[in-house]
Amino acid sequence: MTHDHHQLAPSSKIGGVFLPGLTALTALHPVVDFVSRHIMNFRKFSGPHEEEVDEKLIFSESRAQRRSSTWLRVVAFLFFLVAGVHFLQTHRPFACLQHVPQLTGADYPFPHPVNATYPPVDPRSRSPVAPWRPCPAPYNRDGLDCSYVRVPKDYFNASKGFTYVAVGRIRATAKAEDQLGALYLNPGGPGGSGVGLAASLGKILSVLTHGKYDVIGFDPRGIGATRPIVDCFGSTYAYNLFKAGTVREHPFEVHPDPFSEEGREVLLRQWTELHAMRETEMKICLEKMGDDFLHMGTSDVVRDISYLNFEAGLGKGHPINYWGGSYGSILGTYLVNMLPASSLGRVAIDGVSSARLWSETPPERWIANGWLVDTEETYMWNLRECSEAGPEACPLAKKKNEDVAKIDERLMKFLDDLYYEPLAVPGGPRPGVLTSGAVRGAIYAATNVPSAWPRIASWIARAMDGDGTPLRGVYFPDLASLDRNQVDQLELSRAAVGCHDTVPYNDPNLGNWSYPTPKDMTQWTLDILKKNSRRFAPSVPYFETDGGCQWFPKDNQGRGRFYGPWNNTLNTPMLVISNVADPITPRAYGQEVIDLMGASARLLTVNTSGHGTYGGAPSTCAWDALQRYLVSGELPEEGKMCQRDRGNFEKSNVDMLTISDTALDNAAHNLQLLSEVMTDRFAKFSMPHIF
């Protein structure tokens, strides 16, 4: 199919030939083609009026003329051959071949070693896709295959080399004529692994969609198994050592009266420390990673998805289909507005955030500008469930149907007491103390994934009784037990994406935003405490680690970025899903997409709390709507409101330990089962330290 690279990049060309990727072979092909075309057409080089030459005169030329013409062709051939060699020596598109061993496809490991001397895709290969193979641990689940796709690092400058995107695939099982191409996944973050999500949920999504798609999770630039990965400190272990004992390691402490002079000073001191740490991180990343750190934006990832689907052929001739949540909803909104409608199939976004806010305001202002509008409501939702469940299921309640205000009062008093007297924790993987900030952060975390609330509530009750070991373990891992070969530095991957996407500072044409100071951040935190979330405003920056972009190179800001518009007309309207109470992506953002996209989007609301449908309690209704959309393109009716199947303290009627592969394979019409399994697997995927 023909594909319009609308809003992508100009085709990289040598001699007018599209150059999709510079490798040893693909770099030579344009040069050879360039030379041969000019030799074959040399007789047309006579001048601007060559089209007026009688073709018969060419064939009636004398033998001498033919010899002369042949000699000129030889000279031309040598000229262009030398020029081609000069190009290759100058641009060195396959300099990496000097160190490439003679490997077969099976010799290329997954994930690719960070410091390998050879790339994840054989540079001698004309295909940008490495051989598919069964994924190793921890991705070896449900028959997931893994590979790499070579894409241009800079779609505007072919000489920059390549990025190697890690992909994981659950193969389509439907008949070939019923298949719909690829369904690309993004779990959010930025920083979440799409390959990991495919390992956790790919089989469920494949069953949900009747096997019509190759379900493909990909790790965006700088993340997971994709290379280069953001690696500023050398290892996850080294980065954790850098953060140890600092405000980077646990949520902020909050004075019982944050608006007092002492309370303001407590916040200012922590923001000042975090400000300095962000500067340190950014400078280390730029020194260690150089240009690689500057090509990890959302607009780059949209171009990668297009490349995977069309140039690499993962879409099998079909348009792009996509399912993403949280930050993945931002990526999905970029996707449908950067690409032409002809390139897009079915796009569903969940836990919807504002792409407009993301692209038009600096990161440190995102929280202040509306992210926490519904946070307090999600907290109260959890307290109501605790009250209804009673002390046997939720020990924070003193009796069944207790006034939630009393539960809240006890919790807030416990936090205030911990502020002045942290709890000693002599046991666990990393002994120490349990602070007020750590407990407050755990309560906030449970608003995002309410299925974790029963467990976290029981841990808080234990801490109230003097045992803070489980709660401290949420934030303080045993550093000695960490895998020294693990590289992920998720906060820094997120910074690479956010700082690329954000609006430049001090640009009078784009808001003229000033550099933030610790005093600014302190005041904004107090403003949010008053306006949106009086309990959790200081806790959220630990989880949403955005900022530090004033140290990002200004000359890199703007190129290739996408700032809208956000109202593309689609052939297939996108499906937008929002919860009634979402602590970080409020319902209003789902409505914002509808207001901008008009008839090209349809909103489905789920009457539950939590961050996204997958973060809330199971809802057969919501998964039925997603199934209908992805399988047949059917949209829910206008104003559709789905209910959840059960509360978070109610036991599931599905025993996760006894579900067989056969049961899952035959569950396409058992949406309650799929909904339960989806909720369980996502909770374990997103919060492995709790489950």
UniProtKB/TrEMBL annotation:
TM region positions: 14-35, 70-88
Transmembrane helix as UniProt keyword: yes
Sorted UniProt keywords: Membrane, Transmembrane, Transmembrane helix
Residue ranges of domain Peptidase S33 tripeptidyl aminopeptidase-like C-terminal in the record: 571-642
Chain ranges of the AB hydrolase-1 domain: 182-342
One Pfam family of this chain: Abhydrolase_1
Domain of life, source organism: Eukaryota
Protein name as catalogued: Peptidase S33 tripeptidyl aminopeptidase-like C-terminal domain-containing protein
Organism whose genome encodes this protein: Tilletia horrida
Lineage summary: Eukaryota, Fungi, Dikarya, Basidiomycota, Ustilaginomycotina
